[in-house]
Amino acid sequence: MEIKKVQLTTKKTANTYANGRLDFEPFFKYLESFIENGTSSDDMIPLYALERIKEIEHLNGKLCKHNLKAYKDILQLIYSLSVSLIDTAPKRYWALTTALAEEAFYGTEAFFDLVSHQLVEQEIQGKMRTGSLLTNQEKLFYTLIFERLYGFSSNENSSIVYHQLNDRGEIVDYYDLDIDFKFVEIKAKKTLPALDIGRLSENPSDSLFDWNTVINTVKLEDFELSGFSIVTFRKTSTEHTLRRIQSILLDLPTYNYHLFFADLEKIITPLLKGAETVFSLFPLFQLNGVPFFDYSITNKSILIAEAYTANKTFKINPELADYLKHPHVIFYTNNATNGLRNTTSIFDERISRSGVTTYLCIPLIHNHSLSGILEIYSREQDQLDNDTMQALGSLVPLLSQLSQDITLEFKKRIDDIIINRFTTIQPSVQWKFNHIAAQYIQELENDSRDAHIKAVVFEDVYPLYGAVDVKDSTIIRNASILKDFSFKVKQLAMLIDELSLDGKHKLIMTFSARVDQITESLDHISFDESMVKIIEFFRKDVQPFLEEARKQFPSKIEVIEHYAKHFFTNRDTGEFYRNEFETSLRQINQLISRELDHFNSFIQGNYPSYFQKFRTDGIEYDIYIGESITPQQPFSYEFINVFRRQQIISMARITLKAYHAKDILPLTLETTQLIFINPHSIDISFREDERRFDVEGSLNIRYEIIKKRIDKIRIKRTKERLTQVNKIAIVYLSDEILEDLMLSIKAIYDMGIIEHTIEHLKLEDVQGIAGLKAIRLSVNLNYQDFS
């Protein structure tokens, strides 16, 4: 045992209660109560302690930090009473401290040795509203006040968590400092303030109390402490590891898997003996009934990684497939000790080849099914012992649950992608399909003769339509194709010149005349006719010419092959201009699609609705909003106004981003933006043949007709098209929506994203449609704030 002053907390506090006052008075009271209630045979030790303390006090004064050595016998006696009269060896992490365990002054050698080995107090309290932190000692002080003076148990834990670091600053162990306040006394300096427990508990977080309210109600400087505490360190790595895994389980949906497994490895590290011990856990993902492995997750696995190394792409071998069907624990060591014995495994040779000295594989079973594989191994001797294996064994149920949750989350993400990207059954309408399917199953179960799948219909929904078109895309595409053809013809001319160096040949002269003929004819026919002629020319003329040229000019084979690679559908050389156009079109469509995804997220976050996109040379979309789609949420027409306003903002953002993208696209492309506002609600139904929603009923078909006929509509009595680059055109029928529309435009103008100029236009009559009007807005191309 040692008398030694060691600070246990690094937290500084301005409160005057710090460290309290060392005093034997609480210990006196305890001994006296023990004597009063005990039998005569039990009185000897307490009586001796009381008398001895009084003797020392008479000679050296009352207990304080400066006369500890005088009380060494009493301190030893407290240890003996606290621990055991039989086992007096200083093996336990035991000590006496100031009242709130800020400083230890007497304890076992093991205790002080542990404290000296990079043991760090762990701050576990959240920030107060003031920005300060509630320290562990302050929390313990409040706990004593509530329990001793108010008779109210706060259920707060009377321990402080410490973690031990290695030389690299990594956590390798956890210890809980358990505190016994039996010999601590607390007094109020003035009248106790009245406590309303209900108010203290108004906004609790991880505690029974709202600590912000507590610190404003109870002032610690109004209380004083005396006595001493008995503390013991208890190794709690397993408990804290379990707790930390449980906490990250709650955040699983927000994790990137690779970051998640990196964090998990750090959490497990304190249980592993030695830095060379490797932890590998991988969930058993299943795709279409076949195991699916992500190499970035399984790259540390002995069982899996070798297959990747050998095959580059993973192919499950029969041995592994059999193991996954019949999983079992595998233990391997090349130096069996402590009664641990190898299991016989078909993987022994693979494990041995890997250079591993000790290896443990535990299948993770959840609900009688394999959810994942846990592997622990080391290439150093004596790194995987009984204690480590026992600690890991206690984690197996939780790790099995974790693997199962990861696989379920993986499947959910796949389902979300399929639903959102590949099918029309979106989350907002999934409930209706479920309801219809359930009704159909009920009818089948009841042997109904009329069992059939009813139509999925949504009535009284408000449509929002928008279209972003790439200006003159057809003209640009056609021009690109013809430029590619022109390039190929030039290559043919160069080949003809090369072959003509050997003199005039009938084959060359005939083919050259044919090239001139096809080139001249293209100037007098339509593009569609040109395409037919070009394709026919390369198939019926160019291909036979090359084959014959190879025969007649064997010395020119290399030259012929050099040019031949440009003549057919080689995407690197033969279709350069078309590739340039298609790449630019793809990039501009990706830009548009991302902005529409943001717009859709805004809508779904406010009132879940149906959103569908259609890819053309550009993108057009329909949105359907109404209470029949989202019956669980009250509908207000104000949602429509809000969404129309956001629709215009979305179109303005697309215009800006397309404008700024011109400089980075392989080929400059520009976009036009069009919105149609339908004045009334419509009905829609799901068409199984086309797997999409369409308008329902003859009265609503007019909405679809207008959509199809306004993309190239002109301003009345002019030849000017309504849709223009860097502008947003909004088509409407009824003036009754104009007031709301202008309020939205005014709010958007105040943002700075559109110019002040607003054009009010009348549109030409188109087949079956008259009286269409439009507003045209100019986007502020200098706008910078995309937040």
From TrEMBL:
<protein>
    <submittedName>
        <fullName>GAF domain-containing protein</fullName>
    </submittedName>
</protein>
